[in-house]
Structures are given as structure tokens and as C-alpha cells.
Design brief:
The chain is of the alpha/beta class and about 500 residues long. It has helices spanning about 55-70, 105-115, 140-155, 170-180, 185-200, 200-230, 245-280, 295-305, 345-360, 375-390, 395-400, 430-445, 460-470, 490-500; strands at about 20-25, 45, 85-90, 120-130, 160-165, 185, 285-290, 320-325, 330-335, 365-370, 400-405, 420-425, 450-455, 470-480, 485-490, 505-510. A hairpin with a 4-residue loop joins strand 14 and strand 15 (about 485-490). The structure holds guanosine-5'-triphosphate and magnesium ion. The site of magnesium ion has 5 residues, from helix 8.
Length: about 500
């Protein structure tokens, strides 16, 4: 079912609590102790980072006021109004600019999917227009542009044109709007609008505000050149010695700095969270993939967490969230849900979210989910891999990545062609046991943990030591001689210490 977020201006929505501290629902689990039995523990990121709570609260109130100012209504917000859209796709049919691995039809289908994501926007018309070089100012050749203009003018119900290019300059936008008599949006504006509709946490909102700065800057340039023409030269603001352009630029720069600082602050708290996760030694698994491939659905299936909301919508998830689950040997792990990728996602937008993605570098394993039913699944894979490559992740993370082919319930007798790929249906729960086994294998390698059985004397301190320092899975008591066989998951260093402390304990390696 489509549960699209209703788009309201930012200011109308209350700011959510800062998303920073990792806290289990009831009490924080001790080391090696799973977050909650049964595989459904919900991990929330909530305000405050521990330590001196009162000071923090005061500081937070101040921050809150600052943030509210930064996150005030944006001049670029498109507003909640309905739009009836003509999607225009400039198609390069030949030459070096022709995109590989896709067709104009598939590209326009994705553009339509982006528009469909917005609740009260509808696509009335899809137009593919050939062009040699979509990067040119007017995108189309003269003849094609005229034909297109006539076509658009004959569509009286259309209120906006979505020009499926990464970005158009505000000057071009204005000229096109004048020629067509309707609003014109590029991919950047549409994706930004979707992000704005879906942003829930402060961090996501700040990232969007940051992504807007380059747009505001280029708008400013045009406003100023228009003003200059109107005013015929008097460019200084009285007495300040600063031109209008300089003042506005300074204000933008200050705003950008404030946003970056606020983000930095949130991130510092997040790194604390990371240390906490590390301390508890829960392996971290980042679930990544193209938007709408089923990441959230998979995490929901793996953790049994009912609060997660997968949606048939692009960019449903904008915030990184952590969720606890269990592997077959009862090892507790944390799955991290991430923002989805998109081909030709405007560069600035990716950049503003890349700090969020940098978190991935701290995980122990990446699971790459693919929607194998999507006609562009190969292009999507290439996009995801190229973004991952640009994140400068440690090479062992890229090498150990688990590739998952999702939605196989929609294809009869699906068999992956890629070696090592696992076929699953996150929605129907097929293939999840095999996936968990595979994840466990890789996690054990990545974290240097071992699963082994040790023989202990029940009268000695071994058992309580193991409970404290490792994850105890099974205890089989031998009443006749007062010993027990204990199956544990244990890290390398703990294992070394165990051997030193209890040299006589018998160890059975698997
Ligand atoms: N048929 C089928 N549909 C699935 C499966 N997994 C996910 N879906 C559907 O695909 C859509 C997207 O699922 P999500 O889990 O929200 O995808 P996501 O990757 O988290 O998407 P974003 O957060 O928007 O990037 C939803 O409508 C899901 O019900 C599957 O195994 N089979
Ligand atoms: Mg999601």
C-alpha cells in the first residue's frame, strides 16, 4: 500500500527529538547480552548523549532555537500544492553522451516514479525529445525546442514540466518557464522536494538545508543581475560599503557554516553512539541498495521489528536507523537501514548525505540488496557500486559484501547468474535462513569472533567469566562429574585471556 508522506512546509512540523543516543527500550544490555530476546528488540536513537544530562539539556535548548531558525521555511520549498506534470526527457540517442545500460523509456519511467512518490502530484504526459547534448543551455536544438513548446502549450491542464536532467541553471529555468507558461523543475528540485517531504529527523532536515545552499547561491546571482539592470548601477547598500550581492553571499555563507556546525555536533554525538556499540561488541551490518529495492522490508523481516515502515515510494528512508536482530547462533547484531541510491542523483545532494553514509565505513559487513525484478537492475547495481566506491570504504568491506537478489517471489524459478548472490523475498520471508547463515559466516570472519565449545568446572569461576566476556549460547550440564559443556561466541582477545586464566579448561574447536 502506498502511504505517501503528506508534504507540508517544514515549519508546520514540530521538530523531532535529536536523534543521537542509542538506547534500548527498557534497559541498556550489558556486554555480550542481546538487546532483547526474541529477535525484535527496537533500538532507538534518542536525544542526549549521556553524561551530564542537565547541562546537555540547557545546551540543547539553545541549539533548538538556533536550529529552528536554520530550518525555517525555505524559499525553495515547493509547497504542498498539487501539480499536474508533463515529464520531458531529453534523450541522447547516439554518441558519447548516450547513457549506457538504459533506454529513454526506462529513464522516463524512473522520472515518472519520482513524481508518483509525491502525494498530490500526477503525471499527465510523457514526452521524449531527442537531443545531441543535454548539457547545452537550452538542452534541445532549435527545431525540437519549438515543437516541444507547441506541444506543451496544447496541454492546458499541465501545471508544471519536469525536465529530466540533473540540473538547469535558474536562468534557463526562467526562460523555459516564460516560453511554456508553467513551472519547470529539474531532477535536483524534484528529489530535494521528495527529501523535504520525507525528512523526519533534524539531521535529515539539516542535510537538505545544506543541499539547498548552491541553489540559493545561483538564484542570488540571477536576482542580482536583474536588480542591477533595473537600478542602473547603484549597487551599494547605504553606508555599508558592501554590495547587495556581497551582503547576501555573506548571509548564505554564514548560514552554510551554521548548518555544517550543527551537523558536526550531531555527528559527534553519533560517534559516541558508535563507541557504545563497539563497547557492547555488537557487529554492525549496513543494508544498502538502490531506492525502493526493499532494504527496510528486509530489515523488518530479519529483526521482526513491526515499527518499520517499508513503502512503495522512492526515498522512503532518509535517516540511518539501527535495529537489533539475531543470527542463527543467537549472536545479536545491529542492522543499519540507509538512504537509497539513485542514478544521476545530483552531486550536491549526494554530498550532503555522504557524511551519513560515511557511517557505513564503521560497519562490519555490507549487505547489498537488489530489486531483481526491476528492468534497470544492472544499471542500479552499477550505480550502487560506484557510489560505494566513492565513499572510500575499507577494501575488506567491499570485498566481503553480500549481494542479495530481492523480490524473487515475482519471478518464477529465479536463479541468480552472479556467483555468490543469494535469492530472497524479503516480503514473503524466502531465503532468509540462508542469508542469515551467510551473514553469520562473514561476520565471524570480519570480527575475528569464534564459535566454540569449552569444558568447564561448574564450581570454578569460568561460567560467570564467560557470561561476562563472551556470548554464551548453550550450557550442557554433566551432573555426574560437576562439569558443563558451554558453547560460546568469543572475540579473539577474550579468547586469549580465557586461555591464560583457565589453562586447564578443555576447548573444542568446531
Ligand atoms: N513483491 C515483493 N515486494 C517487495 C519485496 N521486498 C520489498 N518489496 C516492496 O518494495 C517496496 C519498497 O520497499 P522498501 O523496503 O520500502 O524499500 P527501501 O529499499 O527501503 O526503499 P527506500 O527507503 O525508499 O530507499 C515496498 O512496496 C515493498 O513492499 C519482496 O521481496 N517482494
Ligand atoms: Mg527504506
Amino acid at each position: 500500500a502506498v502511504v505517501a508522506a503528506r508534504c507540508r512546509p517544514l515549519s508546520a512540523r514540530p521538530l523531532s527529538a535529536a536523534a543521537v543516543r542509542l538506547r534500548a527500550p527498557h534497559r541498556p544490555p550489558g556486554r555480550g547480552e542481546p538487546p532483547r530476546a526474541g529477535g525484535g528488540g527496537r533500538w532507538k536513537e534518542v536525544a542526549g548523549a549521556g553524561g551530564d544530562e542537565e547541562d546537555e539539556e540547557e545546551e540543547e535548548d539553545e541549539d533548538e532555537a538556533d536550529l529552528e531558525e536554520l530550518l525555517g521555511p525555505s524559499p525553495l520549498a515547493l509547497g504542498p500544492g498539487a501539480q499536474r506534470v508533463a515529464v520531458v526527457h531529453p534523450a541522447v540517442k547516439w554518441g558519447p553522451k548516450k547513457p549506457p545500460l538504459t533506454t529513454a523509456e526506462l529513464q522516463i519511467a524512473e522520472a515518472v516514479a519520482l513524481i508518483d512518490t509525491l502525494q498530490n502530484w500526477t503525471v499527465l504526459e510523457k514526452i521524449i525529445i531527442p537531443t545531441k547534448n543535454p548539457d547545452k543551455k537550452f538542452i534541445f536544438g532549435k527545431g525540437n525546442f519549438q515543437a516541444l513548446t507547441e506541444k506543451i502549450k496544447k496541454l492546458p491542464h499541465v501545471t508544471a514540466v519536469f525536465l529530466n536532467v540533473e540540473r538547469i541553471s535558474s536562468l534557463t529555468k526562467k526562460e523555459l518557464e516564460d516560453a511554456w507558461g508553467v513551472k519547470v523543475f529539474d531532477r535536483y528540485t524534484v528529489v530535494l522536494h521528495i527529501f523535504r517531504c520525507n525528512a523526519r529527523t533534524k539531521e535529515a532536515k539539516l542535510q537538505i538545508a545544506l543541499a539547498e545552499i548552491p541553489l540559493l547561491r545561483s538564484n542570488l546571482k540571477n536576482d542580482v543581475s536583474r536588480l542591477d539592470q533595473q537600478r542602473g548601477g547603484s549597487r551599494y547598500i547605504m553606508g555599508s560599503g558592501e554590495t547587495f550581492m556581497e551582503t547576501q553571499n555573506r548571509i548564505l555563507k554564514e548560514k552554510e557554516l551554521k548548518i555544517r556546525n550543527a551537523l558536526e555536533k550531531l555527528r559527534r554525538k553519533r560517534s559516541l553512539l558508535r563507541t557504545q556499540r563497539r563497547k557492547r561488541e555488537f557487529p554492525i551490518i549496513s543494508v544498502m541498495g538502490y531506492t525502493n529495492c526493499g532494504k527496510t522490508t528486509l530489515i523488518k523481516a530479519l529483526t521482526g521489528e513491526s515499527g518499520l515502515q517499508p513503502r512503495d515510494q522512492l526515498f522512503a528512508t532518509l535517516d540511518i536507523t539501527a535495529h537489533a536482530g539475531y543470527l542463527p547462533s543467537h549472536m545479536a547484531v545491529i542492522y543499519v537501514d540507509t538512504i537509497g541510491f539513485l542514478t544521476d542523483l545530483p552531486h550536491n545532494l549526494v554530498e550532503s548525505f555522504s557524511a551519513t553514509l560515511e557511517e557505513v565505513a564503521y560497519s562490519d559487513l555490507i549487505v547489498h540488496v537488489r530489486d531483481i525484478t526491476h528492468p534497470e537492475t544492472i544499471l542500479q547495481k552499477a550505480t550502487v557500486l560506484s557510489v560505494l566506491k566513492n565513499l572510500n570504504l575499507p577494501s575488506h568491506l567491499l570485498d566481503s559484501m553480500v549481494e542479495v537478489h530481492n523480490k524473487v517471489d515475482l519471478i518464477e524459478r529465479y536463479k541468480p547468474t552472479e556467483e555468490n548472490a543469494l535469492a530472497i523475498s524479503a516480503l514473503h520471508g524466502h531465503g532468509l535462513e540462508e542469508l542469515k547463515e551467510e551473514i553469520e559466516k562473514k561476520i565471524l570472519t570480519a570480527t575475528g569472533k569464534k564459535i566454540l565449545t569449552v569444558n568447564i568446572n561448574l564450581e570454578g569461576p569460568q561460567l560467570s567469566w564467560l557470561y561476562k566476556e563472551a556470548t554464551v549460547q548453550e550450557v550442557e550440564v554433566m551432573p555426574e562429574d560437576g562439569t558443563a559443556r558451554v558453547k560460546v561466541i568469543i572475540g579473539n582477545s577474550a579468547f586469549g585471556r580465557y586461555r591464560n586464566l583457565f589453562p586447564n579448561s578443555k576447548i573444542f574447536m568446531p
